[in-house]
Amino acid sequence: MCKQKKFSLGFCALLVAGFLAGCAQTNEAPVETRGGFGRTATTVDPATLPGAENAGKPGYYTVKPGDTLIRIGLEHGQSWKDIAQWSQLANPNVIEVGQVVRVVPPGTAPGEGRATPTATAPVQATPLPPAGGTASAPAASSTNTSTGSAPTAPSADVASLGLIWPAAGNIISGFNETTNKGVDIAGKAGDPIVAAAAGKVIYVGEMRGYGQLIIIQHSKDYLTAYAHNQKMLVKEEQTVKKGQHIAQMGSSDTDRVKLHFELRRQGKPIDPVRYLPAR
User: Nearest 5°: CA angle at 106, between 101 and 110?
Assistant: First the structure.
């Protein structure tokens, strides 16, 4: 009886050891990272991923951990739908680390046909009291402190947009290329946010760090972004007019009610205050 019991225990031990060994062999799961619109994507050998032959070429971008198609579009001044189409993505909801996507239209060299900045003098802007007419602290400086260099003059095509202020509040955080890629405008929950210029809505949704976000494309070079909204009043592909009510101010994915407003040229953030009228 003892011998039989010892045999059974030994056999069970062997089974358990074999099971664990099998788990060790099959548990080499690929690393998972956020991809597409925030869903997980699997990393594999980059050489086997779509677009691998274009890695490093101008006009293409290699997906990094944490990327989403929306963020890639914002950083390159393009609609996520255009990038998905140009890259012939079978499923735009999922992109993989190491995958290469096209971020300029096919047949177009990077920077081709882009406007050259002119020597127009910078527009001086003063903050408007917030909605309701109550006084608030002075606006923060919008000087680009990341470089310490003199501001670059606005280009003629920026001036042609005729930008207006998207919200009626004081600036509480100025532009800085490394720490704040736009300006933060104070207000209270529900205050109106308007389109700074006429254009086409290319994104309405959520993005980490931006909360409820709207992106409007004004030309092939310029887009504006409106973040931390409480309620969004437009849809993707919708054409909007300058001054049109597009959202209500909120505090989504941030610590206070405010509008984070960005102006980007070819995906590069630039100080919007210098292109807005005095008020």
Answer: 80
CA distance readout (Å), 237 to 53, 81, 203, 240: 32, 10, 8, 9
Reading phi first (left if > 0) and then psi (alpha if -120 to 50, else beta), residue 77 is in left
Q: From CA 153, how far away is CA 120, in angstroms rounded?
A: 6
Radius of gyration of the chain (CA): 25
Question: Per CATH, the architecture of 156-275 is what?
Answer: Distorted Sandwich (2.70)
259, with CB counted inside 10 A (0-12, 13-18, 19+), is buried
Grouping H, G, I as helix, E, B as strand and the rest as coil, residue 48 is helix
Ramachandran angles phi, psi of 176, nearest 5°: -155, 125
CA 264 to mean position of chain CA atoms: 11
Q: Where are the domains of the chain?
A: 32-102, 156-275
- Residue 41's beta-bridge partner residues? 33
Polymer length of the chain: 279
Residue type, 122: P
Rounded Cα distance between 260 and 279, Å, is 19
Mean pLDDT, the chain, rounded, equals 76
- State pLDDT tens for residues 98-152: 999 999 999 876 654 343 333 333 333 333 333 333 333 333 333 333 333 334 4
Please state which of the four CATH numbers 1.10.760.10, 3.40.50.300, 3.40.640.10, 3.10.350.10 is assigned to the domain occupying 32-102.
Answer: 3.10.350.10
Give tens-digit pLDDT for 175-203: 998 899 999 999 999 999 999 999 999 99
Q: How many CB atoms lie within 10 A of CB 210?
A: 24
13 pLDDT more than 80:
no
pLDDT bracket for residue 44 (50, 70, 90): low
